[in-house]
Backbone:
């Protein structure tokens, strides 16, 4: 399954394009723009599993830095600052990574 099976390619393009400037990434706006906010909990979990590149059941800090690439291969990497901000927003239990339930909560709060 690919991201475009779950989200509209045009929405992905617009959302990724809105945050091309370094340190401009806003996960709440991004999740809304890309259409993730309107998706069912099942679809949000499917998106999580696409972003969990090493299939560990978590999106670790390193994977978070590449989150935009998970939506669009030619997107930029997040800066260290953006990655840390996103991790802090999503990591509810403080284990340094984001699990599927934490990701769902992060999207729901957007």
Residues:
């Amino acid at each position: 399954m690919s991201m475009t099976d779950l989200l509209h390619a045009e929405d992905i393009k617009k959302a990724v394009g809105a945050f091309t400037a370094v340190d401009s990434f806003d996960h709440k706006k991004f999740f809304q723009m890309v259409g993730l906010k309107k998706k069912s909990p099942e679809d949000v979990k499917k998106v999580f599993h696409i972003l969990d590149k090493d299939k560990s059941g978590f999106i670790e800090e390193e994977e978070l830095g590449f989150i935009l690439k998970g939506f669009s291969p030619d997107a930029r990497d997040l800066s260290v600052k953006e990655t840390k901000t996103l991790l802090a927003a999503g990591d509810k239990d403080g284990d340094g990574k984001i699990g599927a339930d934490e990701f769902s909560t992060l999207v729901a709060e957007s």
User: Anything to note?
Assistant: The mean pLDDT is 97. The CA atoms of residues 51 and 70 lie 6 Å apart. The chain has eight helices and two strands.
